[in-house]
Structure formats: C-alpha cells, structure tokens
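This week, look over our next protein:
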Amino acid sequence: MKQDPKIVYKYRDWKNPFHKKILIENKLYLASPKDFNDPFDCRINHNFSILTPKEEEEYITALAIRHFPEAERLGVDYAPIIKDFETRFRNKPEFQKFADSILFENQDKYYAIFSSSLRWNSILMWSHYAANHTGFCIGFWHQKLFNSRLFGKGGPVIYKTDFPIIKPRPATKDDQMMIDSFTETHSKAKEWHYEKEYRFMSTSPKELTNKDRSVPIKDDFFAEIILGISMDEHDKNEIIELCKTKGIKVYQAKKVDFKFKLKRGKIKII
C-alpha cells in the first residue's frame, strides 16, 4: 500500500487577487468540475451500450422499485411513467445523452474539489499554473487537509491510456458504486501524468454557490511556500512578510546548473 504524502502542493499566481486569498485570507476554493481545463475531467460517463438485455431489464426494474414509493405518496399513476422511461431507454444514443446530462449537471452543482500536486518542482506546472514561474507554490500538510472534515475522500489521480469503462447501475450503497464514483472523479488521460495530481473531494446535499466553495483554513495548514524563479522583488517581499506573521517557511526556486531541473534554497526570515 502506498504511503500518504506528507505535503501536497498548489501552484498559484500572486498577481491574481483570487489566488492571493489563499495566503491573505486563509481561503481555499473548492472547484466545480465545469471549471476544469480538461473537458474529460469528471466526465467519465456510464456506458449504457455495454448492458446485456438482461441487465437492461434489471436496471429498469430497479429504478421502478426505487421510485415507486415516492410516486405512490404523491398519488401519481406510475405505470405510464415507467413505460415512457422504458421506451426512451431503448433509444440508446439519446438515452446516453440524457443520462450524461443528469450526471454531469449533478457533479457540477454538488461536487467540491481541491486539486493539488505531489511535486513542487514541475517546470511545466510552474509555467501553466504559476504565471510562467513568476508566481508561487504553496505546500499544505496532507494530514491537516485530510482530517479537516472539508472533504469526504482524497487520493491520487489515476492516469490512463484507455477511457475507463463504468457499467450503469441503479444508485445503491455497495462497494462497486464507491469504486465507480472514484473512477469518475480521479481518472485522467495519460497526457496529464506530469502533474502527479492528488485530489481532495466532497459532495454537498445542496447546490453549492461560489461563497460555499470558499472555505477557511488555519495557519498551521501551510507547510511551506516556494517562490518562482522569475518572481519580482516586490511580490517576494509581500509573501515573505505574510509568511513571517503566519510562521510559514519560505523557499526560493532556482535552476540547477547544466540540467533541466529545479532546486530550492530556504530564505532566512528575520
């Protein structure tokens, strides 16, 4: 079994006021899947085309049983409803689109995700997420985040060459449903493997607003800050002064001579 990381990292741009909130206001933003830059991220749909005729009947029956008590309570004639559902279900391409729209809309509304990385020294990530190495990288204590009750689960993203296959099944609380849920939220294409992403996630019973998604953390959640190679002196001084008041260690990223690698040196805070 792989050991949990000690520190996880988030690359940010200090000139972006939204990004500065992490350090200035101690606020983490838990994103919705609709905001991700990867159109496949959290878009692992349940494949209805792989169901056998027997599994199709079982799926329809299970849904009918699950929703019947509510229809009975409301005094609704359930027979035509299930008949209409069955007819629509037989048109696989259209039903797949319908099922996808419901799944993805629910994920966008109710999922809250904090993406981090297991590495601070990715040249690409400094370029993509930290304003071409002019930004900063925040190290968070993994155990603090994991035990914070902000999230329901956490784990590394699994990078795959082939698109994951998830068989549709009526919502139940069995182990397979948990596995499928993790596959939905922690699977990405192999091209993203350089990120070494570690993802924390929770779900909400109500639709989340932007305000709901901004959550407070304490100073002791911060393990360290790394400053980008090309960060200007004004921004460096601002961050160093903030870290001095919060008791956070600060490092300066540097090039390794004659190699495509980064190193870092600790900044002495007086």
Remarks:
- Residues 50 and 167 are 7 Å apart (CA to CA).
- The longest strand covers residues 111-117.
- The chain has a mean pLDDT of 90.
